[in-house]
Known about the structure:
It catalyses: ATP + protein L-histidine = ADP + protein N-phospho-L-histidine. It comes from Labrys monachus. By secondary structure, the chain is α+β, with helices and mostly antiparallel strands. The chain is built from eleven helices and eleven strands. The protein has four domains: 10-38; 68-187, Beta-Lactamase (2-Layer Sandwich), CATH 3.30.450; 238-320, Signal transduction histidine kinase, dimerisation/phosphotransfer (DHp) domain (Helix Hairpins); 325-468, Heat Shock Protein 90 (2-Layer Sandwich).
Amino acid sequence: MPMRAWHLGRETLARWAPSWRDMLVGPARLLASLGDRMPKGLYARSLLIIITPIVILQAVVAYVFMEKHWQSVTSRLSAATTKDIAAIIELYDQFPHDKDTEDKLENIAQNQMGLDVEFRPPEDLPPRGARPFFDILDQALTEEITLRIGKPFWIDTVGRSDFVEIRVKLDDAVLRVFARRSQTYASNSYIFLLWMTGSSLVLMTVAILFLRNQIRPIQQLANAAQDFGKGRDVQNFRPRGAREVRQAATAFIEMRRRVERSFDQRTTMLNGVSHDLRTILTRFKLSLALLDENNPEFEALQNDVDEMSRMLEAYLAFARGDAAEQAAPTNIARLLEELRADSMRQGHDTKTSFQGNPIVVVRPDAFKRCLTNLVSNAQRFGDAIVISAHREHRYLTVHVDDDGPGVPEDRREDVFKPFLRLDEARNQDHGGTGLGLAIARDIARFHGGDATLARSPLGGLRATVRVPV
């Protein structure tokens, strides 16, 4: 029996589990949708965190005030006014219904109750008008008159701004009453609403101004880090703001100093290595100059020395990375024209085009080396070359297209690896160090961008450099 109950329990849970999962899917999707619609910036999110509780608190206070205090006071005032009207009706019923009685009751109502009373001949009551949108007074008066008088009546809480009109149908007359609006409901509530709205606006204004001053140092720190990554001068950056922001800014400054010191040390080391290696290459070249050019080994040795010199320059360029160069305004259209002229001199059909503002802040020599490497790669494997670039609001994009054999899609990331030559995909008759594309991507990433490969409209390879400006 216990085993059977256990199986029944498992079957019940299995039937109910999908229902519970379906019930949880809706809230999860709602939360995901709200997350997508939330602001992404720190300033907007901080404002939302501060303003949302203020709005909720004010809404709760307003609801409690309207529901409890204002409605309660309005009900009491309406009840008092209704009692006065009921007393006048009771006195009218107890005395003769003549002109003298009506005059006395009107005087008593005017002097003792503050009501403007008039006994009119019998007539039909006006039709009931549309209830006002904000009808706490209308509702309270209706309930009190129905409860305490119990006669046909008509009220107008909208028509005259300073008075409320009430008509009660008696047996042989119609009692018309004008009461001041302040007698029937809490008329000073707008002061509370104005105070609540004004205090909310003041709090939100203070929050906006305070948050703007607090977030500005964070934005300055982000801009300084971005400028440093692009090689721009950030010497004027100083820690500002709250203690945590100052700590982050101080850490960034120390990191910048360590990076610059590391660059200086590496540059010094590379200068020493390049000097020593170039000295040895110079000895080789002098030795070759002393050899007889008719020697069958002369040409082979000359090619080896030239190849070694090119490889040395490529290795040093890759190791150096041009990280110490400062960014400066550069005419990209003129740079592309120089690349086109060099390529034409080497016998390649080359075209260029540029769209947008040509002045871009980049590291001039490094960026030229980046594009030169891409053009050289296109020259080795293609005949026709197209260099196109366009400047957008935030990015500069340069395409180098060729009509060569291209690179398989699954190997396009591999060719950016240092010292890798993808000879099976491109011409095997061309050598190289395998550093050209690696250096190009390294320089593009130093600028905060990237270099990618894709299929070219010319049928070969398209190399794309995209950097922020």
